Amino acid sequence: MCKKLLPTQFIADTGERIYRIPCDFHRSMTSYVHLILGTGPAVLVDCGSGEGNCFQEITDAFHYIRSNFHETFDISQIGRIIITHAHIDHGGGAAEFLEKTSAEVMCHSYDAPVMTRYDERASIGNRRFSDFLKTTGTAQELCREIIEAFGFTPGRAKSVEKVHILSDGEKLDNLTIHHTPGHSPGHICIQVGNRHLISGDHILSKTLTPIWPERLTPHSGMTHFLDSLDKIRRIAGHMTALPGHEEVIPLLSVRLDMAEKSHFRRNERVLRLLRENETPMTVSELARRMYLVQTGTWALVTLTDIAARIEYLEQHNLVSTANATALEQEKEDIYLYQPVRHSASRST
């Protein structure tokens, strides 16, 4: 079983048993799926990547749950597979589970196309990534390598034929759906009773959730993400969060505040780098100054992170595009950014 981590049980105040199940996404990252029993049909929240031993690790965990928590559950009893968001480590295994169950796959409408038309969306996504990388100042010979390392490639995951569309505020027995865009356009968190929140990648215990600029992925971006943080803060109270990676968050409200402050500090650092530099800077230059890791999957993530922050600072009239005329006239492809001088002081 994944890195010797074992399933753990949480009891909701409304009686549901929530089982937190580890599975490998790749060597550097453990993912968690969540099995909910006792609220109508058995619910699996997220289903792993469908790659490597992921499916076997999850089904082995089902055996462990039966043996150690005295559940009579069987995989065939899963009636709902709820996808927090359609990134491959959360939704890539759906087709494999449908071979063993008659479950409904459920997700928000904004992420549904990735679940039902994976290859198409991967192809379109890679074209957008390629166009985006050209604007960042990344060396041309590295662009294809970065996209391939990120791994959103046709053929990597199987599509499912249909999904049930979930809406913000929808209730499924004692589960409540909260649409929390930012990391993904259709990201959702699932509230179980009044004390537990399955948070996907919206909030993690240690890492700041990667955010994509909205010009690359509509309905994502820093503004949407911060609005989603506020939305969950309003219901957090004394909730415990069960994220898709890293450790359980026992005091969700505290972690939400910490994450927001950390995002604002990073926004301030981007702005400070621009103010201290004598000439306008590219996204790639800012990423190299901000982050040490620039290889593999993280090469793209650092660039999109900076681009999302620049986009947010532009929206607040703190940053401008220094070479807008050259871009308009197609004399240049790389965006150069500079601070807006003498702007009113405000929170970023």
Could you characterize the architecture of this molecule?
- There is one protein chain.
- The chain has helices spanning 54-69, 88-91, 94-98, 112-116, 118-136, 140-150, 222-236, 252-276, 283-290, 297-315, 324-328, and strands spanning 8-11, 17-26, 29-37, 42-45, 78-82, 104-108, 164-166, 171-172, 175-179, 188-192, 196-200, 240-243, 319-321, 337-339.
- The chain has 11 helices and 14 strands.
- The model has no long low-confidence stretch (mean pLDDT 92).
- It has a 7-stranded mixed sheet, covered by helices on one side.
- With 348 residues, the protein is of the alpha/beta class.
- Helix 5 runs antiparallel to helix 6 (140-150), helix 7 packs antiparallel against helix 8 and helix 8 (252-276) packs across helix 10.
- Which of globular, elongated, flat, extended, rod-shaped describes the shape? globular
Share of helical residues:
25-40%
List low-confidence stretches. none
Q: Give the spatial strand order of the biggest sheet.
A: 1-2-3-4-5-6-7
Overall structural class, as computed from helix and strand content, comes to alpha/beta
Main sheet record: 7 strands, mixed
SSE topology string: EEEEHEHHEHHHEEEEEHEHHHEHE
Our count of helices gives 11
**Radius of gyration of CA atoms, rounded to a whole number:** 21 Å
